[in-house]
Amino acid sequence: MRSAPGTKLAEITINENVVFETDGISSDEAWSVVVKKAARVLQSGAEIAEAESLGLKTWVQVDFREIVKAAARRF
User: Fold this and answer.
1) How far is CA 56 from CA 15, 21, 27, in A?
2) Domain range for 58
3) What is the model's pTM?
4) Total of domains in the chain
C-alpha cells in the first residue's frame, strides 16, 4: 500500500504489527479485505522499483510517496 509521511507511517517503525482493512461495493458485488501482518516501509531501490512495476494506484488525490509492504495470503 502507499502512504504519506505522518503518524501512521511513523508507527510502523515503532510497531510493525498492523491491521489494514478496505471494502468495496458495486451494483452486483461487495468485498472486504483484512490484512493482519508485520509491515515495513520499503527502503531499497530494487524493492521500490518492484512495487512501482505493480501499477498500484491511489483512491484519493494525495501524494503518497512511501510504499508499505504487508505480505498476505489469499483465502
Assistant:
1) 24, 16, 24
2) 2-69
3) 0.59
4) 1
